[in-house]
Amino acid sequence: MKTFKDKPFDQWLTEFPALQDVKNLQPSFWFNPHVKTFDMIRNSLDCSYADVKDAADRLERFKPYIASQFPETQENGGEIESPMQAIPEMQKTIADQYNVSVPGSLLVKLDSHLPISGSIKARGGIYEILKYAETIAIRNGLLKTTDNYSVLAEEKFRKVFSTYSIGVGSTGNLGLSIGIVSARLGFRVAVHMSSDAKEWKKKMLRSKGVTVVEYDADYSVAVAEGRRQAATDPRCHFVDDEDSRDLFLGYAVAAERLKEQFQQQGVMVDAEHPLFVYLPCGVGGGPGGVTFGLKLAFGDHVRCFFVEPTQSPALLTGLVTGLHDRVSACEFGVENKTIADGLAVCRPSGLVCRMVQNILSGIFTTSDKEMYNLLVLLAQSEGLRLEPSAVAGFSGYARLNKYLEQNTIPGRTQADSTHLVWATGGSMVPENVWQEYYDKGIQLSGG
What's the pLDDT tens digit per position in 313-346? Predict the structure, then answer.
């Protein structure tokens, strides 16, 4: 099996020019040369439509419990879902700021406003814990899949769950999702948090009764140590963001729900109306799962792009080299220091790399300065307040359209295309913290 050390450093740079941008911390734009038609490769993937359907059915069973425990979900009957909306003023702003034509319509998927934990991690993270709780309850003879799952709030379930524990390594948002729902079910929870995790997220977790273990190191170290400690306890379930099929499937459920939203709002997706989706990316589970689900829902009519910080281009490095999780972007000189704490990852998920290597259209990288600027532009144009990592997708949208002004590529955007930026977090950011982001963005833009 190939490793990074199989070739001299300069040879990697020569063979893969995109790695020059990684080394030089320059924003890059990589078109994936390995894309295949979805029908050609869908049967070779590790997950299937049946797997996603099973996850969707499980979330449906849990809706009565979710509604009973989290009042903010009651309006939607316990469904954990986010709104989608057009953002025409931001579309005009990007056209002006980037001096680019922006045909078609621009929408935003507000996973930043998902109930319970306010980020995309509320999809995969909460799903994995619910599946684990269901498994334990059924194994102990307390639950059948035909039951009304609101019974899970009863003390007899909490008593059983309290004899089990949950562990997870996180830069912040996954830890919030795992910690909040696990503690509510009655599990003992430890969240291993990397040095870039924000203090307010740690405080929120502790206020829910979650144990926060802090590390003066990056995400990979927090995950590795959390995994090691969990392995010593047979009654501890470790949510492994680097290699979790359940997380991946929880994210994938989003696509069919998005398809329903499109139908309700009259948005067409077909050969004449292509869909372009831009997803912020850290270790890859969230954007990877969503991408897989979107391909199941729309086939080759959807083209997905990941966006990563220039300081943390994990998926870009893994896919460009073909080494997947056997290489770290840090080996090319990046420091993995970015304001986008949710994306501060240098080594990608191997599972995600395998799943998206033939279905992902490309990857962009963006600087902290650009994310700060986009945060300000979105707030001023649409009144939407997101955290820096959640606006990264707008960079991909602007730069793809800039590229298409001068180049012809398969699937060229058209006037009747739809562009969707996936906003991954921000609604739970404290007002004073968000104001600091905004003021920093104003300062950097010279405003």
Answer: 999 999 999 999 999 999 999 999 999 988 999 9
Kindly state the DSSP code that residue 72 receives in the 8-state scheme: G
Q: Which helix (H) or strand (E) holds 249?
A: helix 245-252
Residue 447, pLDDT above cutoff 70: no
Alpha-carbon distance of 414 to 103, in angstroms, equals 6
CA distance 306 to 277: 8
Sequence-separated (6 or more) residues with CB below 8 Å from residue 17: none
Phi, psi of 407 (to 5 degrees): -135, 150
Q: How many whole angstroms separate alpha carbon 121 and alpha carbon 178?
A: 8
Residues near 431 by beta carbon (within 8 Å), at least 6 away in sequence: none
- Considering the entire predicted model, what is its pTM? 0.96
| Other beta carbons less than 10 A from residue 358's beta carbon | 18
- Tally of helices (H runs) and strands (E runs) in the chain: 18, 11
Contacts for 350 with CB less than 8 Å, ≥ 6 apart: 242, 243, 324, 325, 326
The CA distance from 431 to 447, in Å, is 21
* Amino acid letter, 30: W
Reported as a single tens digit per residue, the pLDDT across 212-237 is 999 998 888 888 999 999 999 999 99
